[in-house]
Design goal:
The protein is α/β, with parallel strands linked by helices. It has helices at residues 16-20, 43-52, 74-87, 116-133, 154-165, 173-183, 187-193, 224-237, 253-274, and strands spanning 6-10, 29-33, 57-60, 91-95, 98-101, 104-110, 138-140, 168-172, 199-204, 208-209, 214-215, 241-244. Helix 4 packs across helix 5, helix 7 (187-193) runs parallel beside helix 8 (224-237) and helix 8 packs across helix 9.
Amino acid sequence: MHGKHLFGLGLRKPHYADFLDAAPVAVDFVEVISENFMVAGGRPLNVLRRVRERHPVALHGVSLSIGSADGVHLDYLRRLRELIDAIEPMFVSDHLSWSRIGSFNSHDLLPLPYTEEALARVCNSIHRAQEVLGRTLLLENPSSYILWPGGMTEWDFLSAMCARTGCRLLLDVNNIFVSASNHGFDASAYLAGIPADCVRQIHLAGHSQGRELLIDTHDQPVRGSVWSLYAEALQRLGPVATMIERDDNIPPLATLLGELDVARGIAAEQARRVA
């Protein structure tokens, strides 16, 4: 865990010019979607290299499909390794989900059954990925809209996964809130059940109300209920790297920097309470 809190934003195309401007952006790091830069060249990769000269970078993937029954794809891992070697990121992360089986790709982050069989497959894939990438992976807890019957709780699954593989966690606080609301579990029990010493990064994001369920849309400001859960999480986690995700309906950079200041304020208040 970091000795101090870090605060970052996602590097998105509407803000490229802001991050390349002469005036530095007031963030400790930026996070990018790995797949957008797993290319041989072009403007996006050039922008990332220039931003990397100014800021640490976290790589966040959406296509590893760590839960696929047929394992992780070696070609994908090799291309990701090339990006890792070029950028030297502070974190390499993806999701505890699956999206691919054989030649089929759902282009969505689908939930896993939290069974011993699934845990064994996930752990085998994590070992393989970490071996090829030469990095410890951070896995993010998903937002979910269905639950498979039986099995263990998500927080117990995450705990066992970390213990068996040495991987670490990217804790998405909005996802906890969304899934707890959708499935009726206690978000505080979730926070109490995760291995706090394994959390390296936090995601904050906005969500929307669907017809019956909350949807993790990343197109709204962080809601008050999620800020409250973030404050509760920090009571257990201590210093950690916090990042705000915004992937649609993207506002001016100054608006997101304002949200990041809210996170800074909450972290500072938690620090005063334990001082």
